[in-house]
């Protein structure tokens, strides 16, 4: 058991620890409410004390734990409070969870991105619980006049074994709130965890299945108007003029006006990506009235004049695919070179060369972009689904000319994120509209506006080359990868470190189609390309594809090439070994065609074996096995859910989805044209296994997503005899 | 504008709206029933699924003027205490990730089980094909429907 200094997030323990609260808590446990026949309704008592920024403790022993990070479906609203509750040592059934609003004084990194919420929140969340527990122990030790070291706790009760005394946390809440925050605290041993590692239901589950207002689109305030925007139909166009004469007089319409999202000369930060910053706003009483007026607008568009570094061309899918092909034929920027690749390729007995591509993808969160704003002369309230609140607060403040502390941002549950809600231009737009109409407003993107607004997963191209010697050893490996408008290359990832002669290059083509982080950026393509390619290399070498990977990983583990390998070869091999065992890899099953793949990204390791059968002349994904090493698993069933979802998402996007463009105009603008995976296309079954260890936890949001695409391509090859190089694979079936 | 008396979740509610207004927006904007979700507006994603006389329909492409005397059931009215077998099965399997599509999934599943109490896998696929789950919870949805069917 280690004593840990309470330096991380210390301000969140100190600043609020002096505050004693009172009054009715509105926190409400839906699970208890909805199963009232079995459980009592859980309610915070009227007297409660704020122990620290994460924690309120009621005199009835009920704790409200604040979940600091945005909830976008990754289930942090359950798993982050579980970590606090673990160290607090309270019964989870006595915990209410509340979404914290943005508060950069109290919380660090209130961001949903990079699968980092748990990894980067881990220590702070543990300390929040552990310091509170310690303060309760000190408070009760003072009361009982015994040494604090003789106090123990168990699930919300303080004990002094020598005297046989005990007291509930609630009884000590008031006294604990007055205790000085300890300089150091003891954290639990992993083996003593009571909550972490046990499956706990989604705290919002009951509210979700009963249709309670939870999402940004559900937010409402008296006097609120509805707004929509019109943006140019094509990348490379901007608004020239708009005839709103018909729309303006339509029923329920309050105002129609044009605006600029950002001020002239504003220095955009990364989260401000937006292709269309001259917009038309339509504001009215109800959504349907606004939709009708929007349809009646007569906007005219004109080409954007090119400025240096800003291509104004109107691209088409055909043109950008051929531009990428041309670019890929030239040497790129060398990002890593080990040994002498050219010499090794020259003496290779066998050379395999392949090209892989993937299209733009729209995130298509099922809840379209939206935000509520209520802006007055001296303050702004913004409520809605956002992954990057602390960044967007700055943008909104700058745009409105308000000090940061006058901009209040609250995160609702988000109907999906996948990276799209890292880019909060819609918050700025809502704020501008509210200020203009001097009233609260909810900005809603129609699905068509959402899908055609850009901020897409980049289009990618990767070229691979491998050289085998006459004994079928991999002696040279090259990857040259690029995209519009970013490269997916991860130069220091596997198989870097496993091959003596290795070359990694990248390139980029600029585009006016805005691109953005999409679940597992870069990895969401390069994993599939690399894992498909390795499958072909293994085949050329006459080796089992799984054993071939293990052989390379063994090399990387025992005698690594280079010093900057981003992955731990033993953990990488560990997930392959696990999936090998659980799937019974190597045993022939009649009618089943298997593919394997593994990948490391966002600090976690994932491997898949995927089974395809041919039914009615069509490949059907029967079963997918997943093995994951994300360190300690906080909430196992929820982690399984994430892994299942990642697998379905990976299958769907690599098999079916693409956003194509003609003359700058997206060809798909709704789900009749843009294909997402549906019920009958999901695997019949998914089986997930976790590597058991005591390593600090890493992310689950992204890592399960990339490798399955490679496993799919490899299984499809065995099922159809054809290799699949271009996503979406269904176009080549 | 026109006045409509709608039978929603067992109560008559009066609204004064344009007859072309989709039921989705009547529910969300005029009646404060926001459990029914907007996803596509063209009947392609299923997030807006409600029951009309027990049958699953897409409220985003159903004009309020088409409803007449048919009984509208929304997710809020599916059960009194969140104890409809489908809702209970959804909780048992902890189906939702982001949760946005789930009221539509539940309404479609409830209508399926009403017409076909013991659906086969193919029946579930067919019935649920119109409901997109962007998070990919399809395997849990199928399990939950089977659990609900057994209860």
Tell me the CATH architecture of the largest domain in chain A: 2-Layer Sandwich
Q: Considering the protein shown, what is the CATH homologous superfamily of the largest domain in chain A?
A: Aldehyde oxidase/xanthine dehydrogenase, molybdopterin binding domain
Count of distinct strands of chain A: 29
Overall helicity of chain B = 25-40%
- Approximately what portion of the residues of chain A adopt beta-strand conformation? 15-25%
Share in β-strands of chain B: 15-25%
Structural class of chain B: alpha+beta
Rg measurement of chain A, Å: 28 Å
- Would you identify the CATH architecture of the largest domain in chain B? Roll
Structure description:
The complex is a heterodimer of chains A (733) and B (151). Chain A has 733 residues and is of the alpha+beta class. Chain A has 3 domains: 3-209, Aldehyde Oxidoreductase, domain 4 (2-Layer Sandwich), CATH 3.30.365; 216-305 and 369-444, Aldehyde Oxidoreductase, domain 4 (2-Layer Sandwich); 331-361 and 456-732, 2-Layer Sandwich (Aldehyde Oxidoreductase, domain 4), CATH 3.30.365. A 7-stranded mixed beta sheet of chain A has the order 12-13-10-20-17-18-19, sandwiched between helices. In chain A, strands 15-23-22-21-16 form a 5-stranded mixed beta sheet, sandwiched between helices. In chain A, strand 27 and strand 28 (665-666) form a beta hairpin. Chain A is globular. In chain A, 57% of the residues are buried. A 5-stranded mixed beta sheet of chain B has the order 2-1-5-3-4, with helices on both faces. Chain B is an alpha+beta fold and 151 residues long. In chain B, a hairpin with a 2-residue loop joins strand 3 and strand 4. Chain B has 2 domains: 2-77, Beta-grasp domain (Ubiquitin-like (UB roll)), CATH 3.10.20; 85-150, Orthogonal Bundle (DNA polymerase, domain 1), CATH 1.10.150.120. Chains A and B meet through helix 2, helix 6, helix 8 and helix 17 of A and helix 1, helix 2, helix 3, helix 4 and helix 5 of B.
């Amino acid at each position: 058991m280690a004593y840990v200094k309470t330096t991380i997030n210390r301000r969140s323990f100190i600043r609020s620890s002096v505050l004693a609260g009172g009054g009715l808590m509105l926190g409400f446990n839906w699970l208890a409410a909805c199963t009232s026949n079995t459980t009592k309704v859980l309610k915070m008592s009227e007297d409660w004390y704020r122990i620290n920024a994460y924690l309120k403790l009621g005199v009835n022993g009920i704790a409200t734990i604040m979940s600091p990070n945005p909830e976008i479906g990754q289930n942090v609203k359950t798993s982050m409070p579980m970590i606090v509750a673990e160290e607090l040592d309270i019964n989870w059934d006595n915990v209410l969870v509340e979404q914290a609003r943005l508060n950069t004084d109290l919380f660090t990194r209130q961001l949903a991105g990079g699968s980092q919420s748990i990894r980067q929140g881990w220590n702070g969340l543990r300390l929040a619980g552990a310091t509170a527990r310690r303060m309760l122990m000190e408070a009760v030790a003072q009361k009982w006049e015994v040494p604090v070291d003789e106090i123990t706790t168990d699930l919300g009760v303080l004990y002094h074994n020598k005297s046989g005394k005990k007291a509930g946390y609630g009884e000590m809440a008031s006294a604990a709130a007055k205790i000085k925050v300890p300089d150091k605290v003891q954290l639990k041993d992993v083996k003593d965890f009571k909550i972490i590692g046990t499956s706990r239901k989604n705290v919002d589950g009951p509210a979700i299945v009963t249709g309670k207002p939870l999402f940004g689109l559900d937010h409402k305030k008296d006097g609120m108007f509805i707004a929509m925007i019109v943006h140019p139909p094509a990348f490379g166009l901007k608004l020239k003029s708009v005839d709103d004469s018909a729309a303006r007089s339509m029923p329920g319409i309050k105002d129609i006006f044009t605006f600029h999202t950002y001020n002239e000369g504003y220095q955009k930060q990364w989260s401000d990506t937006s292709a269309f910053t001259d917009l038309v706003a339509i504001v009215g009483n109800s959504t349907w009235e606004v939709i009708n007026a929007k349809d009646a607008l007569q906007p005219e568009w004109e080409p954007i004049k090119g400025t240096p570094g800003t291509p104004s061309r109107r691209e088409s899918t055909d043109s950008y695919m051929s531009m990428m092909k041309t670019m890929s034929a030239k040497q790129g920027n060398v990002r890593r070179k080990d040994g002498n690749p050219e010499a090794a390729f020259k003496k290779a007995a066998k050379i395999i060369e392949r090209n892989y591509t993937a299209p733009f993808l729209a995130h298509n969160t099922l809840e379209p972009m939206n935000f509520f704003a209520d802006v007055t002369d001296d303050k702004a309230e913004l409520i809605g689904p956002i992954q990057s609140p602390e960044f967007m607060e700055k943008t909104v403040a700058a745009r409105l000319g308000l000090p940061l502390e006058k901009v209040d941002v609250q995160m609702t549950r988000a109907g999906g994120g996948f990276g799209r809600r890292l880019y909060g231009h819609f918050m700025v737009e809502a704020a501008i509209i509210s200020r203009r109409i001097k009233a609260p407003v909810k900005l809603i993107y129609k699905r068509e506006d959402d899908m055609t607004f850009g901020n897409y997963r980049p289009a990618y191209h990767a070229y691979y080359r491998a050289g085998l010697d006459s004994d079928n050893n991999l002696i040279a490996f090259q990857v040259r990868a690029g995209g519009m408008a970013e490269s997916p290359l991860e130069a220091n990832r596997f198989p870097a470190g496993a091959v003596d002669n290795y070359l990694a290059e990248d390139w980029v083509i600029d585009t006016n189609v805005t691109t953005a982080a999409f679940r597992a950026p870069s990895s969401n393509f390069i994993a599939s390309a690399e894992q498909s390619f390795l499958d072909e290399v293994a085949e050329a070498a006459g080796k089992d594809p799984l054993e071939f990977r293990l052989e390379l990983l063994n090399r990387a583990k025992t005698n690594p090439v280079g010093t900057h390998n981003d992955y731990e070869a033993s953990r990488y091999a560990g997930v392959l070994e696990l999936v090998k065992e659980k799937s019974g890899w190597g045993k022939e099953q009649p009618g089943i065609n298997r593919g394997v793949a593994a990948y490391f990204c966002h600090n976690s390791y994932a491997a898949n074996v995927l089974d395809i059968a041919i039914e009615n002349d069509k490949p059907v994904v029967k079963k997918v096995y997943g093995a994951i090493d994300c360190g300690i698993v906080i909430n196992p069933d929820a982690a399984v859910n994430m892994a299942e979802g990642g697998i379905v998402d990976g299958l769907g996007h690599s098999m079916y989805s693409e956003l194509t463009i003609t003359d700058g105009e997206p060809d798909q603008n709704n789900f009749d044209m843009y294909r997402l995976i549906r019920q009958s296309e999901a695997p019949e079954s998914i089986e997930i296994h976790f590597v058991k260890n005591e390593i600090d936890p890493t992310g689950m949001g992204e890592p399960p997503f990339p490798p399955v695409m490679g496993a799919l391509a490899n299984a499809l090859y065995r099922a159809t005899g054809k290799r699949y190089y271009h996503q979406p694979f269904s176009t080549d079936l | 504008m026109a006045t409509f008396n709608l039978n929603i979740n067992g109560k008559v509610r009066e609204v004064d709206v344009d007859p072309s207004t989709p039921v989705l927006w009547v529910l969300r904007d005029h009646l404060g029933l926001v459990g029914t979700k907007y996803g596509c507006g063209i009947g392609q994603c299923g997030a807006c699924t409600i029951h009309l006389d027990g049958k699953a329909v897409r409220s985003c492409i159903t004009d309020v003027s088409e409803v007449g005397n048919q009984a509208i059931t929304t997710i809020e009215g599916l059960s009194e205490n969140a104890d409809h077998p489908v809702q209970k099965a959804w909780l048992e399997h902890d189906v939702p990730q982001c949760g946005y599509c789930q009221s539509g999934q539940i309404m479609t599943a409830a209508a399926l089980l009403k017409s076909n109490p013991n659906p086969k896998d193919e029946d579930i696929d067919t019935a649920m094909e119109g409901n997109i789950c962007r998070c990919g919870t399809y395997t849990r949805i199928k399990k939950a429907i089977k659990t609900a069917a057994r209860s």
